[in-house]
Amino acid sequence: MGSDKVRQLAAVIFTDIVGYTALMQEDEKKASQQLDRHRNTLEKRAQEFEGKVLHYFGDGALTIFSSVCNAVQCSIGIQNDLKSPRLPLRIGIHVGDIAYNDNEVFGDAVNIASRLESLSSAGGIIISEKVKEEIKNHPEIKTKALGSYRLKNVRQPLSIYAVSNSGIEVPTLREVEKKTGRLSNKIAVLPFVNMSSEGEFDHFSDGLTEEIINGLTQMDTLDVISRTSAFAYKGRNEDIRQIGDQLSVSHVLEGSVRKYKDRVRVTAQLIETDEGFHLWSETYDGHLDNIFEIQDMISNEILEKFDPELVEEKQNTVKTSTLPVDQDAFKTYLEGTFHEQKFTLPGIEKAIELFKKAIDQDPHLEESYIELALCYCYLGIMGQSPAQRAFEKAEQYIEKLCEVNSENKQQYAVTAFIELFLNYNFTGANRSFAKSLENIENNSRTYYLYAIFLNVMGKPELAIKWMELALQCKPSSLMYNVGLGRTFYFARKYEQAIEQFDYTLELDASFLSAIDGKGWAYMAMGKEEEAHNTFDIYQNLVSQEQENIPQLVYVAAKKGMDEIATHFLDLLQLGGTGGRYTITSVDVAQIYVGLEKFDEAFFHLQRAVDDKIGKSLFINTDPIWDPLKSDPRFKELINSIGLTTSIRALEWPDYGIMKTSD
Predict the structure, then answer these.
(1) φ and ψ at 643, to 5 degrees?
(2) What domain count does the chain have?
(3) Among 14-18, 580-584, 647-651, which is the least confidently predicted range?
(4) Cβ contacts of residue 5 below 8 Å, gap of 6+?
């Protein structure tokens, strides 16, 4: 072949012996035996699975396959062969174009396979998303999602997976994040303990914790664990090192709050999780009116431990309000966020009541306007309040926010949601999102909301990138993890959706949105029994609020149990949910799709669109509506909404440059 290059699309596996250099220094003979065993096993398995070993690099090797499935099966076989006696081998697999000759191998696939190999643990196999996609129809190959990462000399973030078949080692999330460098500046803020005699002051201590989390999230240097994940440790006395492993963080901030009359004492300590030693501990005394100053002091102390230069920069660039904070209003606001984070209908309704009260107490408390608008958007999207009225309410509170401070950047993402769900103004929503994202990095909430917008617009593949970007900012956020699962579902990547929902349920086994999403993914895969069992779990968790759920009625309809489905559909339409949940026209239309009564389905779907129920905007993306798409009425419906509008979608930011895509 000489120096002529051969070009081909190939699955590339990169193998490497862990600790080989150290072993050579200790026992050269044993190291040589391990090297020979590695190469002999590799040659034998590569021949069995029609692969070709192209190059050996010391204790490593590069092998190519024309079949991705063969590459993965070969790797599993190699690891099983090397288990007894154990030879610590790492394997990475990617697929892409390569070029090679007698001396060299070229191509991004080679570099990526090498990077993936370095992230594996001894006895493990790490694969890329491309490989995962190729083996999705091979149920005998099990995988586990490990998240999305930026790898050296790889321009875009890469979603990676571990092969999890029996006998194959799977690295922990903490191990992977430590190798990629993400772990070094990753922090969890545990709920501050209320040391006051007033039990109701829990809302204040929880709110202080949330505000510190929010403040640290704005700092590019830090990767902050989400509020939901951190608050799972409230009231639990666990070793900091165990918490570090469970949350995959390098540092933990914990503390306490004590109130006496109108004064407050906050104690905070920053702990390194590997060894459990304290980096610093500080006590802050002040008046409740100055609570924002205390939050800033704590945030700056933490940031100084990671990047002292940024503290001065932050102090010079961040403009803080000089208006005094009304302590009663702030306390009410914190209580509102406490209820909002429950993500239940009663919780949202209580949060709305409290945010309104906070505004009455202090009309300059900008955060209350934002949260109120978002709460009304939530009710409108789910159809649990007259949708048009809910979105109009959200719009009113954004207008009031602008009267208080027209420069508040958080307004634009909420405005985009209102343009989307109230006005069906898709180009306007896109412009508002673009404005929200201008010169703002790590804006995880906007990344998440924009991904939802892209799902509405029928661009789930691009939405996946935005959801992954949100998760890079907050990897343990339950809502973002569920959002990625939903987006996989919209993209018809059902197995990945199931894996993502399962991963979310590992973080919180009772998180309703993940259970609901998993049930719908099973239905899309035709696994009706699994869907039924999943929705049964959902039903049991909401039984006090909702006796009958439309998901189970839909399953009955799909199973051909028409009489039962019709009976419960009638019951639901008569208000027989047995709780505060309101049956929506979208729910009814879905059940009629399951019953294959398409005339009735179109009637109720049109009604949902007319009533501005937010869930109806997903009709062009959600697989549940696929049976309607061959009907001319479906095209008429999406045309009437404007879902065929062409937008110039924003791509995910790359080194601060915002791109666009048709």
Answers:
(1) -70, -10
(2) 2
(3) 647-651
(4) 99, 100, 101, 106
**Structure tokens that stand for 322 in this block:** 């000089």
- State the pTM of this model: 0.59
The CATH number of whichever domain residue 200 belongs to comes to 3.40.50.10610
Name the token pair of 76.
Answer: 């599993």
Cα atoms in the 13 Å half-sphere on the side-chain side of 355? 25
pLDDT given at position 319:
41
CATH number of the domain enclosing 34:
3.30.70.1230
How far is Cα 383 from Cα 550, in angstroms, rounded to an integer?
14
- Encoded tokens for 513: 């949105």
Tokens of 235: 């009231």
Q: What is the pLDDT of residue 317?
A: 42
Domain assignment of residue 236, yes or no: yes
Q: State the amino acid at position 487 in one-letter form.
A: T
| Residue positions counted in the chain | 662
Give the model's confidence band at 314: pLDDT under 50 very low, under 70 low, under 90 confident, else very high. very low
Q: What residues are paired with 255 via a beta bridge?
A: 268
The last residue of one of the domains, among 149, 171, 193, is 171
User: Do the domain assignments include residue 609?
Assistant: no
Q: Has residue 510 been placed in a domain?
A: no
Q: Cβ distance 128 to 116 under 8 Å?
A: yes
Q: Report the pLDDT value the prediction gives residue 324, as an integer from 0 to 100.
A: 57
The residue with tokens 């890469």 is: 158
d(CA 583, CA 573) in angstroms, rounded, equals 7
**Looking at the structure, do residues 210 and 311 belong to the same domain, yes or no?**
yes
Domain span at residue 112? Answer: 6-171
pLDDT(267) > 80:
yes
Q: Which amino acid is at 482?
A: V
Cα-Cα-Cα-Cα torsion 297, 302, 307, 309, nearest 10 degrees, comes to 10
Looking only at the bridges linking them, the beta strands covering 263-272 and 6-17 are unpaired
Q: Which of 376, 384, 385 is nearest to 414 (CA)?
A: 376
291-306 and 202-217 helices cross at what angle (nearest 10)? Answer: 40
CA pair distance 133, 225, nearest whole angstrom: 29
Q: Which residues pair with 89 in a beta bridge?
A: 17
C-beta of residue 508 within 8 angstroms of C-beta of residue 478 = yes
Same domain, 232 and 90: no
Rounded Cα distance between 398 and 411, Å, is 6
Contact predicate 456/425, CB 8 Å: no
What's the rounded Cα separation, in Å, for the pair 626 and 385?
A: 27
How many Cβ atoms from other residues are within 10 Å of residue 620's Cβ?
18
| 220 & 116 share domain | no
**Which residues are within 8 A (CB) of 267 and not within 5 positions of it... i.e. 6 or more apart?**
255, 256, 258, 281, 282, 283, 284
Q: Which residue has the higher pLDDT, 345 or 306?
A: 345
In 10 A of CB 260, how many CB atoms?
Answer: 10
Alpha carbon distance 105, 52 (integer Å)? 13
Are 137 and 195 found together in one domain? no
Same domain, 12 and 135: yes
Q: Secondary structure of 549-570 in the HEC alphabet?
A: CHHHHHHHHHCCCHHHHHHHHH
For 419, 426, 612, 639, the CA distances from 644, given in Å and listed in that order, are: 16, 10, 17, 6
Tokens for 653, please give them: 């930011």
Statement to judge: residues 165 and 215 lie in one domain: no
CB burial string 584-613: b at 16+ within 10 A, e below = bbbbbbbbbbbbebbeebbebbbbbbebbb
The residues, ordered by sequence, that sit 6+ positions from 474 with a Cβ below 8 Å of its Cβ are 217, 224, 225, 226, 444, 480
